[in-house]
Design brief:
about 170 residues; alpha/beta; Glutaredoxin; 6 helices; 6 strands
Length: about 170
């Protein structure tokens, strides 16, 4: 009985420490504000990573609903071979009051950038010529292979699309 109690206490203690460490990370979390030229440089990197770039905003309900699927993808496959990049299209003046608290509350582990570039009529077609500008939208890149989706993902549909890049 004492062993079980000790084991349960130890597990509880370790989980609290893990949560404390996670909470500490969010106190120091920074979100980089970029213009399209800076984002384009990231998208054009010549390495062997699969990049999943999701365009979203805190005010977009379908975007928020699919964020956990991108986080799960990042948790399970993120690292040297795969990178999930969440590009927020929130208003720049909402960075401190809305975006940072949103990211912290949901403990998003994927890299979050705030795209601050008012020339959307110029950069939207550079992402994909078919993009109307609606969100959520996702771009998957791997070397010369590139696919664009102007839609919401379910967990299954996202993992299915990404698997096409992994298995090639």
């Amino acid at each position: 009985m004492i062993r079980v109690t000790l084991l349960v206490s130890l597990l509880f203690f370790l989980s609290c420490k893990k949560e404390e460490a996670k909470d500490q990370k969010w106190k120091n979390e920074k979100i980089e504000v970029v213009n399209f030229e800076q984002l384009e440089a990231i998208l054009d990197q010549k390495d062997d990573k699969i990049r999943i770039v999701n365009f979203w905003a805190t005010w977009c309900k379908p975007c928020i609903e699919e964020l956990p699927f991108f986080e799960e993808l990042n948790d399970s496959l993120g690292g040297r071979e795969l990178e999930v990049l969440l590009v927020s299209l929130d208003f720049p003046d909402k960075l401190e009051s809305q975006l940072i608290p949103f990211v912290a509350e949901r403990r998003l582990e994927s890299e979050v950038l705030l795209l601050d570039d008012p020339h959307e009529n110029e950069w939207i077609p550079k992402i994909d010529s078919s993009w109307s500008g609606a969100i959520p939208a996702t771009l998957i890149l791997h070397g010369p292979k590139r696919e664009f989706f102007e839609k919401s993902f379910t967990r299954a549909s996202l993992f299915k699309e990404v698997s096409k890049f992994i298995n090639n």
